[in-house]
Amino acid sequence: MQSRLRVQGHPIQPMLVTFPFGLFVCAAVFDLADVAGGPAFLGEVGYWTAVAALVAAGLTTVAGLVDLWDVRAGRTSRTVLTFNLVNAVMAALFLLSCLIRANAPQRGANGALLAAELVALAVGAVGVALGARLMQQFDRVRAGEPTGFETFGDVPAGSTVEIARPRPF
After folding, report:
1. Is the pLDDT score of 103 beyond 70?
2. What is the pLDDT of residue 138?
3. 148 with 8: CB under 8 angstroms?
4. What is the pTM of this model?
């Protein structure tokens, strides 16, 4: 998979997905603690953590759309499209939860909202697995091109190591 947005030659979008997913996990943990009888402020923290995750998911979606533009038709394009759709479903479920809680005085979660968040996390786990598959497909394409720290591994004695500059877009 080639991408216009890269870090060390790797597409950035599969890496960015970890931020909203991690924030969504934290939001669900705070909401679980709130529903389980913890202090009321935990529901508020869970709400604002989910809002931060939605902002991060929006930025990740922009990177995904840029990547989707450059992917050629085939197996990789189907994986990229599925990856983006799965992440959008996860974000949509959390958005629904946030919209329901937005006008509440405490913004705490209830059992039904927590269940929706747990379903969203299960969907997001599929997205993480698809992101890992994309990175593996990308690495197979670039198998003969050492980048980053890989250039220092398994160098025969007496050889020199060159660090190549990244190729332009």
Report:
1. yes
2. 65
3. yes
4. 0.71
Looking at residue 55, its pLDDT comes to: 94
Angle at CA of residue 44, ends 38 and 48, nearest 5°:
135
| Count of Cβ atoms closer than 10 Å to residue 157 Cβ | 4
What separation in angstroms does the CA of 168 have from each of 9, 11, 148? 10, 14, 16
Q: Which two tokens stand for residue 168?
A: 């332009």
Which letter does DSSP use for residue 153 in this model?
A: S
Coil vs helix vs strand at 10: strand
Please tell me whether residue 9 adopts helix, strand or coil conformation.
coil
Residues in the chain: 169
43-86 tens-digit pLDDT? 889 999 999 999 999 988 887 777 677 666 776 677 777 878 88
Running DSSP on this structure, what letter comes out for residue 7? Answer: E
* CA dihedral for 122, 125, 129, 130, sign (positive or negative): positive
End-to-end CA distance of the chain: 13
Q: Which residues pair with residue 10 across a beta bridge?
A: 7
